[in-house]
Design goal:
It contains 14 helices and 12 strands. Strand 7, helix 7 and strand 8 form a beta-alpha-beta unit. Helix 2 packs antiparallel against helix 11. The protein binds (2S)-2-hydroxy-2-methyl-3-oxobutanoic acid (X2X).
């Protein structure tokens, strides 16, 4: 028997023994509840760093009763696929962009309206206030639970492999990857671009193979997905803000005892708040890092971009889609939109 074959058999034997042994946890108790928790970010993104701390704290405080396993980087499927699995119960928990969720719950795209939020202060006032509450109430109607604190994805900037974006004219005919969501398609159609709906899991390849010439995302995503390897320019447009809701399958959530639910919600909400600070810091500090990696930054005046959305009928289209009530909730924070 060759050395490698013997090693293999030995390794297999160990693995088999490990599988046969009952799943004993560090807290001396087999988990009563095991949840799969999916997201689209690489492990180093602050969302995964903070989520990991939260699930460890939850396991400890529930004495091992609730074991939440995190699956980063779309390991369980693209965002679109994972949303279906969440609804069927194949996946119990999912941190998902509100705008992607809007394919199911239209008002979840409210926060993505072009140039609605001027800064983070306003974002958290609205999302921890009436806008968030309004969206969560709509999410509840499709049998999903959304925890109170939304996680930060961030203000979005446009990257390209071809040229800096200085004016709305630079976006004319531009082949840009956008996430799978009507709000993004509608916005870049309003800019007369050629948007292609592509899930985050396919984004790098789409840019590398030049299926598209650019994309738009916050700096933390541009950095964690290593988009600097396939992009040259970054135009700081801050054209919209988006975050990730922690969504939970309603039947799975209701199976948990109330005290376990409270512990889980407490730690996950705290993790989201900590992650906001991490991402805000990164979205500032990462610019230098990206410059060092060869990205060329420019900061266009955004008035002309907003005017273009207005004249293309973007705001009136979405006012009709969202309805007067939702629009009024947003305008309570943002002032007149459009
Ligand atoms: O898919 C994207 O671009 C991302 C990572 O920003 C979202 O989750 C919306």
């Amino acid at each position: 028997m060759s050395f490698s074959r013997r090693t293999l058999i030995k390794a297999t034997g160990v693995a088999a023994a490990a599988c046969a042994a009952p799943l004993k946890l560090a807290y001396g108790q087999t988990a009563e509840f095991t949840f799969k928790y999916a997201n689209n970010q690489p492990p180093a993104h602050p969302m995964n760093v903070r989520a990991k701390q939260a699930v460890e704290a939850i396991k400890a405080e529930t004495n091992g009763r609730l074991d939440i396993q995190i699956f980063p980087s779309n390991q369980l499927g693209s965002d679109t696929d994972t949303l279906s699995q969440l609804r069927s119960g194949g996946v119990e928990m999912f941190n998902l962009s509100g705008l992607i969720l809007s394919t199911l719950v239209t008002p979840a795209a409210l926060n993505g309206l072009g140039f609605a939020f001027s800064d983070y202060n306003l974002v958290w006032k609205a999302m921890d206030g009436d806008v968030g509450a309004y969206i969560r109430a709509q999410i509840a109607k499709v049998n999903l639970v959304a925890l109170d604190k939304i996680w930060d994805n961030g203000f979005r900037q446009i990257t390209t492999s071809t040229k800096p974006i200085n004016t709305p004219d630079d976006l004319r005919g531009f082949k840009i990857r956008v996430p799978v969501s009507p709000m993004w398609t509608s916005m870049f159609k309003a800019f007369d671009s050629a948007p292609a709906s592509i899930n985050a899991s396919e984004m790098y390849t789409a840019l590398q193979t030049k299926v598209v010439d650019g994309q738009e995302n916050p700096l933390a995503v541009i950095s964690n997905f290593k988009l600097y390897e396939v992009q040259k320019y970054c135009s700081v447009t801050n054209h919209m803000w988006d975050g990730f809701w922690t969504l939970i399958n309603r039947r799975a959530w209701d199976r948990l005892p109330a005290n376990v639910r409270d512990i889980a919600a407490k730690h996950l909400n705290a993790a989201a708040v900590n992650e906001r600070a991490d991402v805000a810091a990164q979205n500032t500090s990462l610019q230098q890092d990206l410059v060092a990696r060869g990205i060329v930054f420019n900061t266009p005046k955004t008035d002309a971009f907003r005017d273009k959305l207005r004249s293309a009928g973007f705001y009136s289209e979405w006012k009709t889609k969202f309805g007067d009530e939702a629009w009024a909730v947003m305008e309570r924070y943002t002032g007149k939109l459009g």
